């Protein structure tokens, strides 16, 4: 017999999926009725007024896994293509600096896009990729998976052992854990799996501002992540960001030609580089290293 807490949690998970579907319909209605310059301030106002609720977002991602292509994990294909290109550029120097036959973990691998990207960059590295069953099933449908060891697991509980990997990577997995205590636990486990001199590389939309920490994202800021990692003895070696969020919805939802979309996307990336703070970057890029002897 289910406890009251279990029943309450189940109802919250169902409500999460239903409210997400309602938000999608509401956004589509707004898109048809209001120009973008009006939708952004309206979205900011609504996010500011909406109370923040922490809950287990697992049901949402189980349902989301059935969406087609990149929409299962991020935006539509044309915009996601630009984001993936930028991710590849950021990942490249970290992957090339790994030792021979390095071990890499992709936490919250989704449909396996970055895991496959990693094996394309280096043929000698071993890649483990973990996510919920629904996402792993989708990832295995793609070709060129033979060098990826897909594993089913909840990132809030998954641990392959301490000091196992040369690179622990995650892209938008931690922020998708809206349960803050579970998010902290997942980060702690991720840090623990990095080996001596190992790198933990995060590309995640960590935000405290409710407009950018909208469901299903967690309200967890970049300084919260840095503080937690430093408490575990890790040194921050890189901090920057990508995806200029004022352009994000416009470019993701627009029907403009891809060449023009790319032009504006790159303008946004240049603005991020020029501005004195990473506040304007939707995705934060944080790299931490475990010093020698701290294992």
Features:
single chain; 295 residues; alpha/beta; Rossmann fold; 7-stranded mixed beta sheet; 10 helices
Protein topology:
Layout: H1 4-33, H2 36-49, H3 58-64, H4 77-96, E1 103-107, H5 113-121, E2 126-131, H6 133-139, E3 148-152, E4 165-171, H7 180-192, E5 194-204, H8 222-231, E6 235-244, H9 245-253, H10 258-274, E7 281-289
Parallel strand pairs: 1-2, 1-4, 2-3, 4-5
Antiparallel strand pairs: 5-7, 6-7
CATH class: Alpha Beta
The CATH superfamily name is: Vaccinia Virus protein VP39
What is the strand arrangement across the widest sheet? 3-2-1-4-5-7-6
The number of helical elements comes to 10
Could you say how many structural domains there are in total?
1
**Series of H and E elements:** HHHHEHEHEEHEHEHHE
Let me know the number of strands: 7
Determine the structural class based on helices, strands and strand pairing.
Answer: alpha/beta
CATH topology, which one?
Rossmann fold
- The percentage helix is 40-55%
Give the second-level CATH assignment, the architecture.
3-Layer(aba) Sandwich
Which residues sit in consecutive blocks of at least 5 with pLDDT less than 50? 1-18
Which range does the strand content fall in? 15-25%
Radius of gyration: 19 Å
Oligomer status: single chain
Shape category: globular
Average pLDDT confidence is 85
Largest sheet: 7 strands, mixed
N/C terminus separation: 43 Å
Would you mind describing this structure in some detail?
The protein has 295 residues and is α/β, with parallel strands linked by helices. 46% of the residues lie in helices and 18% in strands. The chain has a seven-stranded mixed sheet. Strand 2, helix 6 (133-139) and strand 3 form a beta-alpha-beta unit. The longest helix has 30 residues, at 4-33. The N and C termini lie far apart (43 Å).
